[in-house]
């Protein structure tokens, strides 16, 4: 999608400086007993899935301002995902959303293969009504009081599994908007029972090598109560369903100041952490670009993940879940993937032997300083070298801008106005 001569020309401008910076960082890390080549290999091994819906411009409940050359369908989205991975080399998979991305699976596989992409977890949608559906989700879906509505929502999730199975996906993420807006509107106990009954029906259709992820969210679109509102509820769900059920943590789905890294630690301990939706937030579920508001929190989450490496059965699906309202989504997704990868690499620099020693002797100051020393290390030369060696761009955004990709696709993709699938 991006001419390789553009990538080569942009890299040529920056390669000498990069090599000098990389060597200097290598010397610095060697003094700390860290082999920079091993850390670079870890950076190369890291991948996070792009959400197909993130390639379109998002929106708010007030408005959506479309961008130029937005993808018209899943095949355009996969082209954009190919650009993102081609330049940033950190997003080898795409997470689909049904029905927004419904198309012939064989054609989707062929397009993905063209770009060297695979498919991560499938996402179902019972939080909005589709034109052809018989029953409305206005008052709920998997937990609706009406059995026919629940069954329609169950069938939709089963269809997502069937589509995903043809694409090589191995997981289904279930997030529902069900809840209530008024005290007394629903019986919270019976509503949860209905939800569990529906989830058990979906769970029964999971292939043996699949997992189902329960994604919690504190509020919105329901504003008084939400059926799957916190990690405790999500843990109950995953435990009751069985071994193939795990919890998915979306970083924006918590009350302000909640200690998410501790939730991560707890879920890993219980064998119930399945994956993440990465984003950042200031006030609520803002779906801002990863690492733009609180990069230290992102680092602390990865500190727990790196610490838990090697834990029996730990197999995490990393996905981005963001809404891009004022930026080019391709640029935001490339930068976000790099920021997530950065947090992973920084967390890989933590001196865990020293940290355990400080923890054991209650040296709070030095324990904290040990974490911050890793966080403060500028690992950009490692990330850039990993990209360069894998055929990507030293500077993904500058290279993307130099390529003129957006202007080219704008010529064949008409402007999409009003509300659309980009709103999440
Ligand atoms: Mn999410």
TrEMBL record:
Residues 96-287 form the Xylose isomerase-like TIM barrel domain. It comes from the Bacteria. Keywords: Isomerase, Manganese, Metal-binding. This is L-rhamnose isomerase/sugar isomerase. Pfam families: AP_endonuc_2. One of its GO terms (molecular function) is metal ion binding. SUPFAM superfamilies: Xylose isomerase-like.
């Amino acid at each position: 999608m991006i001419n390789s001569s553009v990538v080569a020309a942009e890299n040529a401008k920056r390669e000498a400086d990069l090599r000098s910076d990389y060597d200097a960082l290598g010397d610095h890390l060697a003094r700390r007993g860290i082999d920079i080549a091993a850390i670079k290999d870890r950076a190369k091994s890291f991948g996070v899935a792009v959400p197909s819906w993130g390639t379109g411009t998002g929106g708010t409940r007030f408005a959506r301002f479309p961008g130029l050359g937005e993808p018209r369908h899943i095949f355009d989205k996969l082209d954009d995902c190919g650009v993102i991975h081609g330049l940033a080399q950190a997003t080898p998979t795409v997470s689909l959303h049904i029905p927004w991305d419904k198309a012939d699976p064989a054609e989707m596989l062929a397009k993905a293969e063209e770009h060297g992409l695979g498919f991560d977890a499938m996402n179902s949608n019972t939080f909005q009504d589709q034109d052809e559906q018989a029953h409305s989700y206005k008052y709920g879906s998997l937990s609706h009081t009406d059995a026919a509505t629940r069954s329609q929502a169950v069938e939709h999730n089963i269809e997502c599994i069937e589509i995903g199975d043809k694409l090589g996906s191995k997981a289904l993420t279930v997030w529902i908007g069900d809840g209530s807006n008024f005290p007394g509107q629903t019986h919270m106990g019976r509503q949860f029972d209905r939800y569990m009954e529906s989830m058990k029906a979906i769970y029964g259709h999971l292939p043996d090598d699949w997992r189902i992820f329960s994604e919690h969210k504190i509020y919105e679109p329901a504003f008084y109560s939400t059926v799957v509102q916190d990690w405790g509820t999500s843990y109950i769900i995953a435990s009751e369903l069985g071994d193939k059920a795990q919890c998915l943590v979306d970083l924006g789905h918590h009350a302000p100041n909640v200690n998410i890294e501790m939730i991560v630690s707890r879920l890993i301990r219980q064998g119930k952490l399945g994956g993440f939706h990465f984003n950042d937030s200031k006030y609520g579920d803002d779906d801002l670009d990863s690492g733009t508001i609180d990069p230290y929190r992102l680092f602390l989450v990865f500190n727990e993940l790196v610490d838990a490496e090697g834990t029996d059965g730990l197999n995490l699906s990393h996905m981005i879940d963001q809404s891009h309202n004022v930026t080019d989504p391709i640029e935001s997704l490339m930068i976000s993937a790099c920021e997530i990868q950065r947090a992973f690499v920084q967390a890989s620099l933590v001196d865990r032997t020293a940290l355990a020693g400080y923890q054991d002797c209650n040296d709070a100051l030095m324990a904290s300083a040990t974490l911050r020393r890793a966080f403060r290390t500028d690992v950009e030369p490692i990330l850039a070298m990993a990209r360069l060696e894998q055929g990507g761009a030293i500077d993904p955004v500058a290279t993307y801008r130099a390529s003129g990709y957006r202007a080219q696709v704008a010529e064949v993709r008409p402007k999409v106005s009003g509300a659309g699938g980009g709103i999440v």
